[in-house]
Each structure stands twice: as structure tokens, then as C-alpha cells.
């Protein structure tokens, strides 16, 4: 007040300066500044709140599936890692992976809106069955995962899995329609010895097993099957390098003119001596080659090596090469075989291509055209494993085969198998009527040989004569033991020669 009185007296003494107006201006500016600061503070608070909301929303979207509201794959993996860190010494944890069966037709038949509704219904049923304490996530597409709430044991987990299977089969209502699906479930027991990545991988393996067993069921992770799968994957990876480096080699089993015991040719068989695994059975690596799409490259590599090796042998000796059904369906097969014959300068008339009935049964017209093209080159064609198919007579009637091979399952120990004797006798009668050569494979005893001689079977092969041997041994035998092309039965110790050739 004293300051104000002094200011008033001073302003009255100097009225010409307009000090009262200046003071009023200062007061107004002060009030305006205070109000501005207040409103700016309120605005800043709103901005901060909005940013925090957006941050939380972004974080939620980053960790949750926007359709179902469940955790996504990233959040699920993080949760597993957190559980592993917090419970390193705790009891085992159970995890399930759920994949919907017949979900794709839902989108195709009813539209994506119906698909979204189905996924939302699945999420709701999952949460209802596993309980609020369990972690439920949508990993992507129609795949879900669950970390079961503890404490729980394997029996309780199976009970929940069965309830889930039944729950998923209930109709899902969408507009005026009913949608039906099912699911497959993979289960794994996870303890502190496993990383979270291993837990997910094992659960995925269990799910794959459930689907292979017929879908609509659950399956536990199987360590033994997983080991086999891991070994198979390693062999598949090594197989690519082995084909490029020609580490898988052709071996040759003699084909004999039964009556005269004269060597007429060889069947080409693939053999792989792995650098660390040793000899890998052909039945194993050929199946892997077929499944992985490498069978074409493998077959061409073996054929090229076989033709190169056989070029210097007696020109009266032929080679028989089995073409996989997968390889036979390659439209460039005939062209590729011709290129190898030209490259190796190998007479096409010395080559017989063997195909199984499964390679030709799907389309006789296509198969006939391909076999005719091979015969134009001069290559002979044979029907392998005759008698094991369900329509061999149709194959012989419609396709231009030069020879049939009786499967070893009918020949080995035939003297003691009356039923097989009747089958082989019938095959021989059929072949003679069609003027086809016959090769009997799997001759392992003098009794087998004697019975085939009584039927006038022309050609044969088996351990009784010789096992499959590498190319360099063939060359040596042709210069020594087989110099006159006569191959006598092995009288002693031929049982030792079986080994890998049972799968040849």
C-alpha cells in the first residue's frame, strides 16, 4: 500500500507522463501472461495424455492381434522367455499349439468376413476352455497357442485338449449360416532344460504329427520321431552337395541268362557312402531325394556315371536303369536321357529304362508317348516290380514294354511258397503270350533258380549270382572271373553279400 501511495503521488506530480495508463498496461499484460501460461499448461497436459494413449495403443497393437485381441507371436515368445527366466527351477510347463482344419474353405465359400467371425469365435472358445490364468495367443493365420496355467499335469492337459476338440466342432453361427471346422493340437511338456525356441519348435512338431495322424486330434511331442526328422533334414542338406560332387555312385548287379548262366547286363543301383554316416541305405536317401525334389538331379547323375563306366565294357552288355515316378513325370526326361547318351557316346540300344506301374498308371496316353519316344532313341523299356500293382494287365495291354521284371517278393524262397509259384507261373504264361522277356529278381538260392528254370524264365538276378558291385570291380571281374561272360552261382558264403542290397 505504501508503494502504491508513493506511485500515486508521483503520478499526480507528473501527470503529463501518463504513468497510470502505463501501469494499467503492465497489469493487463501480467494477467494475459498468467492466463496464457495456464492454457498452455492445460494444452500440454492434453498432448501428453494423447501421446501416452497412442503409445499404449501402439504397444498393444504390437503385442496383440487386432482381430481377436489375443497375444500375437511376438508377445507369446516374449512371455515364454519371461516364464523361463522367472521359473528356471520350477516344475514343467505345458504348451499347446492349435491349428484349424478346413479353415481355408470358410474364406473361399463364405467370404473373409465369415473367416474373421470364425477366428473370433475360436479365440472365445479357447479362452473359455483353458481358463483365465492361461496364456492364449494367435500366432498368425489360423494357428493359435496356449501356455497352460499351473499347477497342472499331463492328464488335465489331455482333458482340456479333448474338450477343445469337441468345442471347435460345434457350429459357428454367421448371419444366417452355420460354419463347421475342426482343429488339430500339438502338446509338449516344457521344463527348464529347454529354451523357449526349442519349446515352440517341439510343439510345432507335435502339431505336425497330429495332422499326419488324421487331423481332428491331439498328439504329444515324440523325441524319437523328432530325432529321425532332424537326421532326415541333415541328410537332405548333405544330399545336395553329394549330388553335385557325384559322391553317390552307381553300383552294378549282374543280370544273367538263366539257362546258359551267361552275363547279359547289369542293373544300376545307387550307393552313397557318407563321409561321417558311412553307407546310407538307398531306401532312405532315395525317398528323401523324391520328397525334396532332388530325385531328377540324382537320377541323371547316376545314369551319366553308369554310361561313362559301361562304355568300355563288352558292347553286348546292357545296363538297366530305374526311373523314379517323380522323374518319369518330367516332360524333359527323354531329352535329358538322349543328351547323356550323346555326351557319353553310349549306344542307346544298350540301355533299358525301367519304370514302375505307379509312374504310368495316372495317364496311359502321356506314358505311352514318353515310352514311344524312348524307343525311338533305341532305348528298351521294362515294367519293374511286376505283380505288385493293381492294374498290371492294363499296363501291359496299353503300353509298349519290351520286358517285365517279376518283383523279388514273389521269387525269393519261391520253392517253399505255393501261392507265389502260382503267381509266377501265371506271369510267365502271360509274358510268353505277349512275347515279352522276363527278368526275375531276388534269386537267392539254388531252389529259387531251379524253379525258374522249370518255367523257362529267361533272365534273372540276385545274390545267388552276385551282389551289386562298384564299376571298378565290374571291370576287374570282366577281365578275370567273367572273361567269357559266364557267371556261375555262388555256392558258399553268399549270405554275407546281402547287406545293403536287400534295399537295392
What does this protein structure show overall?
This protein has 504 residues and is α/β, with parallel strands linked by helices. Helices cover 51% and strands 19% of the residues. The protein contains 19 helices and 17 strands. The chain has helices at residues 2-13, 19-63, 73-86, 104-110, 112-130, 154-169, 196-212, 223-244, 282-291, 295-310, 325-328, 333-344, 357-360, 364-377, 392-398, 408-411, 418-434, 446-454, 471-479, and strands at residues 93-101, 135-140, 143-147, 172-174, 177-179, 182-190, 218-220, 248-257, 262-274, 278-280, 318-323, 351-356, 380-386, 403-406, 437-441, 459-461, 469-470. Strands 8-9-11-12-13-14-15-16 form an 8-stranded mixed β-barrel. Strands 2-3-1-6-7 form a 5-stranded mixed beta sheet, sandwiched between helices. Strand 9 (262-274) and strand 10 form a beta hairpin. The longest helix is centred in the N-terminal third of the chain and has 45 residues, at 19-63. It is elongated. The relative contact order is 0.07. The model is unreliable at 492-504 (pLDDT under 50).
Question: Care to give the gist of this entry?
Answer:
This protein has 19 helices and 17 strands. It has helices at 2-13, 19-63, 73-86, 104-110, 112-130, 154-169, 196-212, 223-244, 282-291, 295-310, 325-328, 333-344, 357-360, 364-377, 392-398, 408-411, 418-434, 446-454, 471-479; strands at residues 93-101, 135-140, 143-147, 172-174, 177-179, 182-190, 218-220, 248-257, 262-274, 278-280, 318-323, 351-356, 380-386, 403-406, 437-441, 459-461, 469-470.
Amino acid at each position: 500500500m505504501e508503494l502504491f501511495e508513493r506511485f500515486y503521488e508521483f503520478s499526480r506530480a507528473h501527470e503529463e507522463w501518463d504513468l497510470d495508463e502505463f501501469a494499467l498496461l503492465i497489469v493487463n499484460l501480467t494477467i494475459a501472461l498468467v492466463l496464457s501460461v495456464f492454457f498452455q499448461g492445460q494444452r500440454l497436459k492434453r498432448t501428453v495424455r494423447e501421446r501416452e494413449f497412442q503409445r499404449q495403443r501402439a504397444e498393444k497393437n504390437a503385442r496383440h492381434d487386432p482381430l481377436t485381441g489375443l497375444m500375437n507371436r511376438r508377445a507369446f515368445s516374449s512371455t515364454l522367455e519371461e516364464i523361463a527366466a522367472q521359473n528356471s527351477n520350477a516344475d514343467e510347463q505345458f504348451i499347446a499349439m492349435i491349428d484349424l482344419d478346413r479353415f481355408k474353405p470358410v474364406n473361399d465359400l463364405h467370404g473373409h468376413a465369415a473367416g474373421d467371425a470364425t477366428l473370433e469365435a475360436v479365440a472365445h472358445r479357447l479362452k473359455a476352455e483353458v481358463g483365465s490364468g492361461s496364456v492364449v495367443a494367435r500366432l498368425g493365420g489360423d494357428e493359435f497357442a496356449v501356455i497352460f496355467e499351473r499347477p497342472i499335469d499331463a492328464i488335465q492337459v489331455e482333458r482340456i485338449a479333448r474338450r477343445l476338440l469337441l468345442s471347435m466342432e460345434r457350429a459357428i453361427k454367421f448371419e444366417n449360416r452355420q460354419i463347421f471346422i475342426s482343429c488339430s493340437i500339438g502338446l509338449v511338456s516344457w521344463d527348464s532344460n529347454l529354451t523357449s525356441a526349442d519349446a515352440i519348435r517341439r510343439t510345432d512338431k507335435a502339431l505336425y504329427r497330429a495332422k499326419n495322424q488324421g487331423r481332428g486330434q491331439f498328439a504329444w511331442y515324440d523325441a524319437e520321431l523328432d530325432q529321425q526328422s532332424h537326421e532326415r533334414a541333415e541328410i537332405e542338406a548333405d544330399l545336395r552337395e553329394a549330388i553335385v560332387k557325384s559322391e553317390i555312385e552307381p553300383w552294378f548287379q549282374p543280370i544273367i541268362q538263366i539257362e546258359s548262366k551267361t552275363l547279359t547286363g547289369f542293373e544300376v543301383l545307387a550307393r552313397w557312402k557318407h563321409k561321417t554316416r558311412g553307407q546310407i541305405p538307398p531306401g532312405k536317401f532315395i525317398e528323401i531325394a523324391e520328397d525334396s525334389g532332388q530325385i531328377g538331379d540324382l537320377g541323371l547323375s547316376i545314369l551319366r556315371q553308369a554310361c561313362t563306366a559301361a562304355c568300355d565294357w563288352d558292347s553286348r552288355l546292357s545296363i538297366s536303369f530305374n526311373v523314379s515316378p517323380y522323374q518319369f513325370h518330367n516332360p524333359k526326361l527323354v531329352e535329358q536321357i538322349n543328351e547323356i547318351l550323346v555326351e557319353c557316346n553310349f549306344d542307346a540300344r544298350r540301355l533299358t529304362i525301367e519304370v514302375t506301374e505307379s509312374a504310368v498308371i495316372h495317364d496311359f496316353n502321356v506314358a505311352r508317348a514318353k515310352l514311344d519316344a524312348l524307343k525311338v532313341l533305341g532305348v528298351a523299356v521294362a515294367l519293374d516290380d511286376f505283380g505288385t500293382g493293381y492294374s498290371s494287365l492294363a499296363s501291359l495291354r496299353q503300353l509298349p514294354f519290351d520286358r517285365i521284371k517279376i518283383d523279388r517278393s514273389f521269387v525269393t524262397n519261391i520253392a517253399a511258397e505255393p501261392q507265389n509259384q502260382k503267381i509266377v507261373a501265371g506271369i510267365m504264361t502271360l509274358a510268353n503270350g505277349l512275347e515279352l522277356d522276363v527278368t526275375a529278381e531276388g534269386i537267392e538260392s539254388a531252389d529259387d533258380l531251379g524253379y525258374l528254370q522249370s518255367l523257362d524264365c529267361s533272365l534273372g538276378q540276385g545274390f545267388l549270382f552276385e551282389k551289386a558291385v562298384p564299376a571298378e570291380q565290374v571291370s576287374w571281374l570282366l577281365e578275370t572271373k567273367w572273361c567269357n561272360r559266364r557267371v556261375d552261382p555262388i555256392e558258399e558264403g553268399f549270405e554275407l553279400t546281402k547287406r545293403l542290397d536287400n534295399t537295392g
